[in-house]
Amino acid sequence: MCQKKSTKINIFSDKSGFISRVISLPLMRRLTGAFIVNVLGVVIAFALQVLLARVLGVESFGQYIYALTWINLCVLVAKFGLDTAALRYIPEYETQMRWGLLKGFLRRSNQIVMMLSITISIIFVIVVSLMGARIDASFSSVFIIACFLLPLSAYTIVKGAYLQGLKHIVFAQAPQVILRPLLMVIGIVFVSQFTSVRSSAEVAIILNIIATCLAIIVLLVLSKLAYPREINTSVAEYQTSEWGKVSFSMMFITGFSLILNQADLIMVGAMVSTTDAGIYAAASRVATFMTFGITLVNLIAAPMMSQLYAEGNISKLKIMLSYTAWGSFIFATPLLVICIFFGEEILSLFGSEFVSGAGALAILAMGRWVNALTGASGFLLAMTGHQKQAAYILGANSLINIALNYILIPYYGINGAAIATLITMVSWSLMMLAYGKKYIGINASLSLKFTWP
After folding, report:
1. Which residues pair with 449 in a beta bridge?
2. Helix (H, G, I), strand (E, B), or coil: what is residue 10?
3. Bridge partner residues of 7 (DSSP)
4. What is the pTM of this model?
5. Which of 157, 166, 71, 85 lies closest to 114 in space, CA to CA?
6. CB 374 within 8 A of CB 432
7. Per-residue pLDDT tens digits for 317-368
8. Three-state SS string across 383-422, please?
9. Cα angle 76-80-84, degrees, rounded to a multiple of 5
10. Which of 37, 206, 214, 336 is the most exposed place for a label (fewest CB within 10 A)?
């Protein structure tokens, strides 16, 4: 009886030619384009944060970041998980040439997002108005102005997700990660240098709204160029119930993930001060660079995971995931060293008041580094029909995160918030990885060798 021979392949070698089987030329072009766009975006975003911190000062910067964090949480509900669901359904419908369903998904998801975002904005304004006596007048106006940003941000994210699902990564990312922050930089420099308007959190929010509107216009133009022509001539078909069930689970995954990343900042602002929240936000933003590699690769990998898993092409999926983890590890490790040993120098770019966040930066960086080691394990569950399990894992760790923040912040301030985030980030990363290995049979973390059938 002839036994099937397995070949052990070192991922650092391409003697068997498997890299070319995993990464095609069109995919390599998309990766290159996405890499360039996101590198520029990271540079511009960092410059924007430094500029805002220096122009606004630590107190107003903290108010701006704190209000924006609350708006991001509301955007999460407004999106209803439809941006993540788009990465699952759009590639599937395009591959199967089910243009009616594709058109229906685009139309219905857009209607839901706009309805929810406008409704939530109105509720938010009412709540802030009713709490007027408990909130400083200037801070209350920051929140109310920020409410206008909510539907615009939700629309921008979902529109970008449509283009990402159609594998137009550069079109999806450029208006959001390059144009929007770049316009804000230009606006802040213009207002601070060439007008008599005093720079404040309110002014920064207004500039953000203007930049987002211009980014939406560009997204609309790019969408007309990128959408398949068959959509225009097809009759829209709707599977609203199915889309709603899947996107609802996706919303919890994204939501719990956002809570894990934002609860610390919100609780620092609520339990200590918005000034400390601003310092912590600067440290958190720097630490986020640690996962830039995994975020970049996920732009390409997320739609492909669903497709490869549906095709039963597990071998190619394993290889893609391992490369994702290795790329993230190689990118994150030197940044970890920099954050630990040169944290004060980095944070001093924001201003001398921000140097006190160096300890929190080192702690947060360690959590991000562990997250990088586990690769795209979270996306793997969401893109292979295990979104409910991913939601349970993130939900449990979100509650733990909130509890730890509540306990540690009063004693250790922003360092306590960082410790809480470190613990839960390591916890959910390892749990996602373990579930993928046990129930899907795929190890999304670093792997030196594969069994190639």
Report:
1. 10
2. strand
3. 452
4. 0.74
5. 157
6. yes
7. 777 777 777 777 888 889 899 999 999 999 998 988 899 999 999 999 998 8
8. HCCCHHHHHHHHHHHHHHHHHHHHHHHHHHHHHHHHHHHH
9. 90
10. 214
